[in-house]
Predict the 3D structure of the following.
Amino acid sequence: MNLHEYQAKEQFAKYGVPVQTGRVANTAEAAYNIAREMAVPVVVKAQVLVGGRGKAGGIKLAQTPEEAREKASAILGMSIKGHIVHKVLVVPAANIAKEIYLSVTNDRAAGKPLLMASAEGGVEIEIVARDNPTAIIKQHIDPFLGLREYQARNVAAAMGLSREHWRAFAKIAMNLYASFVGSDAVLAEINPLVVTDANELLALDGKMIIDDNALFRQQALEAQRDVSDDPPEVIHARDAGLSYVKLDGNIGCMVNGAGLAMTTMDMTKLYGGEGYGPANFLDIGGGAQADKVAMALRIILNDPQVKSVLFNIFGGITRGDEVARGILQALGEVPTNVPLIVRLNGTNAEEGRRIIEAANLPNVRYASTLTQAAQLAVQAAKGEL
Ligand code: GDP
Ligand code: MN
């Protein structure tokens, strides 16, 4: 789960990271009032769950409250990479002497958290990683020892930060790590962490991604989830307990099990070639009850790009005949003309096949192997079936 900038900064502040505090407004008038109370030049910042807001025109400096109203009115409602801006953060403008990048994430290969810092802050870290990889300083963190001060100081030295800032930098890095651990985050990022013209360190931006698997014990964070940024199908899928990720292909995939879902996506891409591939990742989980299948089918078919749907179900404890009945029941609830390819394997697969074929639905085809199913789904998507 992604946090907004203002939420991530609140979290950072709780752990002692100095942040540029501000207030959130959802109307231009409210932004005007906040700027008037602050009585200093402010920055009006779009609160959307994507990066690169500055470049997209979602971050604007305003010298006066009137200007803050004007900027807020331009930013509210604008679309940044497909995300509509519903809220802006109004903060006192900082005078920047230097922009630094600082983050904590997990390094899966090393099995440890990783602190990353760069003197080339402010720009996207992916671009620094591509064009100037040695400018990124990395320090692994032993999860049992935590980030030690000497490690943070080593990072400060390696990135060429002047010695007077080492103590403050180390403290911020250690507090950021504490917020990362305490929030069950998979990413805690400050870009930029600035040195102001008054020689103070301050987090100007904040990004945090919370581990979805830890939300059960992060209920205060879960309660802050902003669903207005989620497309309706994502909200429906989450409510139904389905793992759903929309992709930009045209073959809908309905699969039980995450690994099988990945394989199914690979196979549709393999046979789809240029221009044809998976429209989504979807794991309907175990059981494959009819109501869950029906909800998943609704979500998949709601995507206008979907030209065919591939059901790839492995019957383990769930029997293939039950799954087949579930699929037919779901099709009864969600009638469609979109070609559907069904592949069942595992327990009672043959019986499942007979049930599907006996239903004699004109747009439903049965496939025995995944290869055949993927090929049929591609042909159907191309209108060649
Ligand atoms: P992002 O584009 O989504 O990463 O949003 P940021 O919050 O990082 O802002 C983008 C850029 O706007 C920063 O890198 C700064 O250069 C600039 N910026 C943001 N806040 C301030 C501020 O208070 N003062 C000044 N001078 N620049 C700012
Ligand atoms: Mn930023």
The mean pLDDT is 94. The radius of gyration is 25 Å. The chain is about 35% helix and 25% strand. The domain at 232-381 is CATH 3.40.50.261 (Rossmann fold).
